[in-house]
TrEMBL record:
Pfam families: polyprenyl_synt (PF00348). This is Farnesyl diphosphate synthase. GO terms for molecular function: (2E,6E)-farnesyl diphosphate synthase activity; metal ion binding. Its EC number is 2.5.1.10. Its cofactor is Mg(2+). The lineage of its organism: Bacteria, Bacillati, Bacillota, Bacilli, Lactobacillales. InterPro entries: Isoprenoid_synthase_dom_sf (IPR008949), Polyprenyl_synt (IPR000092), Polyprenyl_synt_CS (IPR033749), Prenyl_diphosphate_synthase (IPR053378). GO terms for biological process: terpenoid biosynthetic process. One of its GO terms (cellular component) is cytoplasm. It catalyses: isopentenyl diphosphate + (2E)-geranyl diphosphate = (2E,6E)-farnesyl diphosphate + diphosphate. It comes from Facklamia hominis CCUG 36813.
């Protein structure tokens, strides 16, 4: 997936500047920086910023620290996902995973640090009112904790070597993958102080987009599209993981992906009608099109 260059550059510059504040006596800051600067597409924070820009371009900089906090959470989850006790992946985005580069102990600690510092980024944000900061922290905690992403990861592990139903798989991925996408949409609505109708539409869109993102990843791994996908497909097989193509079959999984993407685009079109700058959402439409896999 390609991303909007200007907005991504804006985010990358801010993230690079922020990381200069994290200089520890140990190698911890090196491990944090290594994981954060591993070449990710930044879809989650850029989704937040794109929506915020569309709703209220003046508020864009008010969402920056929350967007970085979201990327901190996502990055920590990848570090821990790659560990031998989890998915046991030695490669992440074309280079050594954090635990291969720095050892398991420091990789775990760098993930712990990113998780913890994420909430501090929002708590100390001088550009947001205290009430908004509290709401964001509470929402991010739900999205990433015992009822969100971490629970999804736990259910995913417990689902190995079991025949899951489609509903069970959707529940797992609505937490493991979808929860942070949902937070991105909800956070943009909070920061822009959007009305209830817009916030409801944001939640619907984010839920569809997050689900589509996961189905796309399952299909991409199954079809071995990309540098790492052959290894990840092999890892899925070894761990007997449930995936959309495994449950539905390839053709039905592609059909499901298209239906979900169409629903995401329909919600996005509604959002454009109530946006100050609808063109800021065009990049999201591009992402939706890029998620369409053809057999």
């Amino acid at each position: 997936m390609n991303v909007d260059g200007s907005l991504k550059e804006y985010f990358e510059h801010a993230l690079s500047s922020l990381m200069k504040n994290y200089e520890t006596e140990s190698s911890l800051s090196d491990a944090m920086r290594y994981a954060l600067e591993s070449g990710g597409k930044r879809i989650r924070p850029l989704l937040l910023l794109s929506i915020l820009k569309a709703l209220d371009s003046v508020s864009l900089d008010r969402g920056l620290r929350t967007a970085m906090a979201l990327e901190f959470i996502h990055t920590y989850s990848l570090i821990h996902d790659d560990l031998p006790a989890m998915d046991d992946d030695a490669v992440r985005r074309g280079r050594a995973s954090s635990h291969v580069k720095f050892g398991e102990a420091l990789a775990i600690l760098s993930g712990d640090a990113l998780l913890t510092e994420a909430f501090g980024l929002i708590a100390d944000d001088p550009k947001l009112p205290a009430t908004v900061r509290l709401d964001l922290i509470a929402d991010l905690s739900r999205a990433s904790g015992a009822f969100g992403m971490v629970e999804g990861q736990a259910l995913d592990i417990e689902g190995e070597n079991r025949a899951l139903t489609l509903n069970q798989l959707q529940d797992i991925h609505s937490r493991k993958t979808g929860a942070l996408f949902l937070f991105a949409g909800r956070a943009a609505g909070m920061i822009a102080n959007a009305d209830s109708k817009v916030r409801e539409n944001l939640e619907v869109f984010a839920q569809f987009f997050g689900l589509a993102f996961q189905i796309h990843n399952d299909l991409k791994n199954r079809l071995q599209i990309g540098q790492e996908d052959q290894a990840r497909f092999q890892s899925d097989i070894e761990h007997h993981k449930a995936t959309y193509p495994a449950i539905l079959g390839l053709e039905a999984a592609v059909d499901e992906l298209y239906q979900v993407l169409d629903s995401a685009q329909a919600s996005l079109n509604q959002l454009k009608q109530s946006s100050q700058d609808p063109r800021s959402l065009d990049q999201i439409s591009v992402w939706i099109d890029q998620l369409r896999i053809k057999l």
